[in-house]
Amino acid sequence: MSEDDLEIDLDDLTRRMDGAMVALKHEFASLRTGRASASMLDPVMVDAYGATTPINQVGTVNVPEPRMVTINVWDKSLVNKVEKAIMESGLGINPQTNGTIIMLPIPELNEERRRELTKVAAQYAEQARVAVRNVRRDGMEQLKKAKNAGMSEDDQKIWHDEIQELTDKHIAQIDKALETKQAEIMQV
Description:
The protein has 188 residues and is of the alpha+beta class. The chain has two domains: 3-28 and 110-186, Ribosome-recycling factor (Topoisomerase I, Chain A, domain 4, Orthogonal Bundle); 35-105, Gyrase A, domain 2 (2-Layer Sandwich), CATH 3.30.1360. Helices cover 54% and strands 15% of the residues. It contains four helices and six strands. A four-stranded antiparallel sheet has the order 3-4-6-5, with helices on one face. A two-stranded antiparallel sheet has the order 1-2. The protein is elongated. It starts with 9 loop residues before the first helix and ends with a helix.
C-alpha cells in the first residue's frame, strides 16, 4: 500500500467541477436575451464537408447592430446547410439570405418566449449540477479505495467534508449563475 493510495486528488476534482461551470457559462452565452450576440450561434453546428462544424468555422459572424447578426459564409455551397442548421437549432430565428450573407434579425422577445428561455437556462444549470455531482461521486470512489487501502476514519471524515464542501460551493455558484441569467432573460 503506497502513500498515493491514501491521497484524494482535490485539485483534479476542483478542476473538473470548474469545467462544469465553464461549460454552463458557455451554454448561457448561447441563450439570447433579446440582444444580438455572436456567441448565441456557438452551439449551432453545420454539416460541412462530411463533419459537424461550428458556424464560426464556415463563415464570419458579425453583429452590425444590436438586433442583427450576420454570417458571411465563405463557401457558397454551404449557405443552405448553414441556413438549415440555424432553423433547426431552436433559437427561434428565421434567417434571411442574400447571396453568401445570411442575416439573422433578432426579434423582440415576448413574455412566453422569455419563460421558455428561463426553462432552458434551468435545464442547462441542472446538467451542470449533475456534472458536479458526478465529479463528487468520483471523489467518493477515491475515498472508498483509500479506506480499503487503510486510511484512518478521521482522515476519511476530513476528506469527505472537503469533497462535500467543494461540491456545495460549485452547486451554489451554478444556482447564482442561473438566477442571474434568468433575471437577465426576463428583463424587458
